[in-house]
């Protein structure tokens, strides 16, 4: 996750298999984490409640749980180029 980014976006790879989620909210009082979960839900086309934070509430690296049928879309988002 990239808090306080100039623009919000979901897509691209960080490291071997992490999805990049950039949000404009600052990393203060969980605002960036909440925004990242909402952005990911929007990108996947699922209700916000279907994207659940598993670990990493205060870390830039987060583990989230999404519905199983979202796996192909998550893979596509991870493999997108950062130039969108």
Summarize the structure in words.
The chain has two helices and four strands; from the N terminus they run E-E-H-E-E-H. The protein is of the alpha+beta class and 84 residues long. It has one domain. It has a two-stranded antiparallel sheet with strand order 1-2. It has a two-stranded antiparallel sheet with strand order 3-4. Strand 1 and strand 2 form a beta hairpin. It is globular, with a radius of gyration of 12 Å.
Low-confidence segments, ≥5 residues, pLDDT <50?
none
Give me the oligomer status. single chain
Average pLDDT level: 93
Number of domains: 1
Shape: globular
In spatial order, strands of the major sheet run 1-2
What proportion strand? 15-25%
Rg for CA atoms: 12 Å
Structural class: alpha+beta
Order of helices and strands: EEHEEH
End-to-end distance: 16 Å
Give the tally of β-strands: 4
Largest sheet: 2 strands, antiparallel
Helix percent band = 25-40%
Count of helical stretches: 2
């Amino acid at each position: 996750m990239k808090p306080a980014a100039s623009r919000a976006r979901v897509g691209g790879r960080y490291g071997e298999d992490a999805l990049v989620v950039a949000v404009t909210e600052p990393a203060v009082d969980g605002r960036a984490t909440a925004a990242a979960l909402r952005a990911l839900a929007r990108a996947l086309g699922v209700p916000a409640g279907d994207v659940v934070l598993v670990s990493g509430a205060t870390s830039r690296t987060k583990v989230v749980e999404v519905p199983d049928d979202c796996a192909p879309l998550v893979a596509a988002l991870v493999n997108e180029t950062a130039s969108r």
